[in-house]
Specification:
65 residues; mainly beta; 0% helix; 54% strand
Length: 65
Amino acid sequence: MKHISRRYTSLTAEGRALRFASAEQPGTVVPVRRPDGRVERFRLTTTPLHGPHRGTFVADRVDYL
């Protein structure tokens, strides 16, 4: 069983902040189900965010399904 290791923040295709947690290693592309049911894929990074999203890392949006 994997334990959540990092929390990530990214922007959805509509420009809204999306926060999620993942136990996968940075560099991995993960699918994330948005609150509206659509799925987007994000690449996990080691880049920390500051300001209102402090304590999370950047997740780069790859595409949506």
